[in-house]
Amino acid sequence: MKQGGSEREKRHAGESATQAVSDGMVVGLGTGSTAAFAIEMLGERVEAGLDIHGIPTSFQSRQLARDAGIPLTTLDVATPDVAIDGADQVVDDTLIKGGGAAHASEKIVDTAADRLIVVADPSKIAQALCHPVPVAVLPEARATVSARVKELDGTPELRDAASKDGPVVTDNGNLVLDCEFGTVSDPKKLATSLSAIPGVVEHGLFVGCADEIHIGTKEGVTVETL
Ligand SMILES: O=C[C@H](O)[C@H](O)[C@H](O)COP(=O)(O)O
């Protein structure tokens, strides 16, 4: 599922995004290898005196934030001023996310934030949405959701775990169907259709969600404000 992009490019994107963070802010902490660089950099700034709280989007980002010394809070008591998160594909302000199976919590935190900054390497930027759409489903709904995805002309594939026998199980105990739709010409319509299927917990289409894209390159970063 994961696409290329060098560590250097990801680091440049992650570090650039953290410049939007200042004292007193609550920061949504995205998941994945690119967001991890932002968390690392925020930790260094916290150690140097930056006063922030983070809201993690997965077990991974929670652990990284703890290791980095970032104080944590929850959506029960705080609203993120900004969220910094990665993506698997970016077309303008619309994203496909969920390569790390964290898109349900990411969507909750990212859309609650006043501002969503996406961190990406150039391999993620596309002209058309054509990446398979991850769909988190309740385990008992795997077959019924698959059938409905096929009615939408999609091809669902249960995501298998690399490190154990059997399927990927999300932080919330759900399964993931990677659904191939070819080129998605109307992401809003597909998002609505997927959300309406009983048993779908969340899908990875983030339609019109991004406010800024920080694209890390070997030399530096390009920032697109949307
Ligand atoms: O579920 C995971 C997330 O949506 C990630 O933000 C996305 O897969 C991008 O991850 P990475 O920066 O490792 O490519």
List keywords for this structure.
226 residues; Rossmann fold; Alpha-Beta Plaits; 6-stranded mixed beta sheet; 4-stranded antiparallel beta sheet; 6 helices; 24% strand; globular; binds ribose-5-phosphate
Walk me through the structure:
- The longest helix is centred in the first third of the chain and has 15 residues, at 33-47.
- The two termini are 27 Å apart.
- The chain has two domains: 7-123 and 208-225, Rossmann fold; 133-203, ACT domain (Alpha-Beta Plaits), CATH 3.30.70.
- The mean pLDDT is 97.
- It has a six-stranded mixed beta sheet with strand order 2-1-3-6-12-13, sandwiched between helices. It has a four-stranded antiparallel beta sheet with strand order 8-9-7-10.
- It has helices at 7-18, 33-47, 59-68, 103-112, 142-151, 187-195; strands at 26-29, 53-56, 82-85, 89-91, 94-96, 116-120, 133-137, 155-158, 175-180, 200-203, 205-206, 212-216, 221-225.
- The chain is α/β, with parallel strands linked by helices and 226 residues long.
- A hairpin with a 4-residue loop joins strand 12 (212-216) and strand 13 (221-225).
- The chain has six helices and 13 strands.
- It binds ribose-5-phosphate (R5P).
- Residues 2, 30-35, 85-88, 97-103, 106 line the site of ribose-5-phosphate (R5P).
- Ribose-5-phosphate is lined by residues 2, 30-35, 85-88, 97-103, 106.
